[in-house]
Amino acid sequence: MANEEDLNPRDRAQIELFTDHLWMHDGLSSQTLASYRSDLSLFSKWLAALGKDLLDVNGELIQRYLEARYQQKFSMRSSARLLSSLRRFYAYALESGLTLQDPTGKIASPKLGRPLPHSLSETEVTRLLAAPDPATAMGVRDLAMLELMYASGLRVSELIAFEFSQLSLVQGAVRVVGKGGKERIVPFGEVAQQALELYLKGARAELLGGKASDHLFLSKRGQKMTRQTFWYRIKHYAKQSGITSPLSPHTLRHAFASHLLAHGADLRTLQLLLGHSDLSTTQIYTYIAKERLKSIHQQHHPRG
């Protein structure tokens, strides 16, 4: 961060007035205000070398600064945040009569792209699903949860909130209440069905210990399974299976999506199964599928 004491007095005063304004009107945290100060101070220091200050700027100068940051290997996310800070500052300056125009008005934000969700290979999923101990009630429960999540692409929050009435073993489907209370019917395959039947045959009653519960998946104390407990179990089995790929609570959901696409499923079907309201949310998985197919091609094709 540039030292504010090294800034020209005019810029230093403007930054202080601006951050005071944000604090008084928006109640922003000290950490957020410090980010604004840092971004504006760095820009001010760069401008000083050109004989300019914060209120003597046009869009071309801001574009040159963004290009200089790119050459210095600043991340696109960092530059996007900086541009956001400049937009906020010049909107304030325009409203306060300190400038006659907003120099950021015609500058496009850097394209960040969407971070790709971490997934697992089909081999890794097979190893993960083989890890729970079928000789224990918790192992049977965990296998049923893992198999159902991978077979249906459920969110963790949807999985742990399941009530008994939402499951139909006869139809091989679950009724899911997703985000915003939206319902969808999601099918699951024979392997998940067998895991669920085994769980319902005795393990669930053993976990209940004579108590009653509407929830399908239960903790060892017979209570509703928590997200944290399930996440801990996933990490335990991943370590046990020798899986070193990055994991998240939704790892199996992402694996479900990317593996379906790799095997020929279309985006619209995947959108319905995942419960995405917008197809653009689903499209991120096409990159994963393409990269997977490219890897297979390179590995197995004689001209790969």
Quick gist of this model?
Helix content is 57%, strand content 4%. The protein is mainly alpha-helical. It has a 3-stranded antiparallel sheet, with no helix packed on it.
Description of the molecule:
By secondary structure, the protein is mostly helical. It folds into two domains: 4-95, Orthogonal Bundle (DNA polymerase, domain 1), CATH 1.10.150; 122-300, hpI Integrase, Chain A, CATH 1.10.443.10. It has twelve helices and three strands, in the order αααααααβββααααα. The model has no long low-confidence stretch (mean pLDDT 84).
CATH architecture of the largest domain: Orthogonal Bundle
Spatial separation of the terminal alpha carbons: 47 Å
CATH superfamily of the largest domain: Intergrase catalytic core
Q: What string gives the helices and strands in order? A: HHHHHHHEEEHHHHH
Q: Give me the number of helical elements.
A: 12
Query: What profile does the largest beta sheet have?
Result: 3 strands, antiparallel
Helical content band: 55-70%
- The CATH first-level class of the largest domain comes to Mainly Alpha
Q: What is the fold-level CATH name, i.e. the topology of the largest domain? A: hpI Integrase, Chain A
**Whole-angstrom Rg:** 27 Å
Structural class: mainly alpha
Strand content: under 5%
Low-confidence stretches: none
The geometry reads as elongated
Strand order of the largest sheet: 1-2-3
Average pLDDT score: 84
Write down the domain tally. Answer: 2
